[in-house]
Amino acid sequence: MQRKQEAHAVCLYLDIDQASACLIGLRFLPLLLSLISHLAPPFALVVKLLYGCGLRLFECLNLRIQCLNFDAGKITIHEGKGKKDRTVPLPMVQGS
Fold first, then answer.
1. Closest Cα partner for 45 from 26, 60, 25?
2. What pLDDT does 91 receive?
3. CA-CA distance, 7 to 81, in Å (whole number)?
4. Is the CB of residue 75 less than 8 Å from the CB of residue 87?
5. In this structure, are residues 85 and 92 in contact, taking their beta carbons and an 8 Å threshold?
6. Looking at the predicted structure, is the pLDDT value of residue 55 above 80?
7. Average pLDDT of 44-50?
8. Please, are residues 51 and 28 in contact by the beta-carbon 8 Å criterion?
9. What is d(CA 52, CA 90) in angstroms, rounded to the nearest whole number?
10. Is residue 55 classed exposed, middle or buried when 0-12, 13-18 and 19+ CB atoms within 10 A define those classes?
11. I need a labelling partner for 80 at 20 to 30 A (CA). Which of 38, 55, 87, 90 fits?
12. Is pLDDT larger for residue 18 or for residue 53?
């Protein structure tokens, strides 16, 4: 016999604590970008993919060149969390 799954309520707004956490995160964004610029090339790329694409560490470390689709602007992650495949957008790079 299967259990009936409960429906989850969709959050339509942020409460005060959630909004504060978002603003604090934005305040530290320049510091984060400054730290990334000081990393050695392979490590900087990993951090940029983790942050920019929302990848998990294991997903990022298991990427192969075949996973990148620059024409479509997407990265395909194979066997990520739960052994599922997913596709994430490749972030746009701003001029340096």
1. 60
2. 83
3. 22
4. yes
5. no
6. yes
7. 87
8. no
9. 8
10. buried
11. 38
12. 53
Task: Tell me the average pLDDT of the chain.
Answer: 82
One DSSP character per residue, 64-91 reads -GGGEETTTTEEEEPS-GGG--EEEEPP
Q: How far apart are CA 10 and CA 16, in angstroms?
A: 17
pLDDT at 50: 87
Tell me the two tokens of residue 68: 């990148």
**Measured distance CA(74)–CA(91) in Å, rounded:** 9
Residues 74, 75, 78, 83: is their CA dihedral positive or negative? negative
Tell me the torsion sign for CA atoms 30, 96, 61, 56. Answer: positive
C-alpha dihedral sign at 58, 60, 62, 66? positive
Among 41, 54, 48, smallest CA distance to 80 is for 54
pLDDT band at 68 (very low <50, low <70, confident <90, very high): very high
CB 70 within 8 A of CB 90: yes
Q: Are 65 and 76 in contact (CB under 8 A)?
A: no
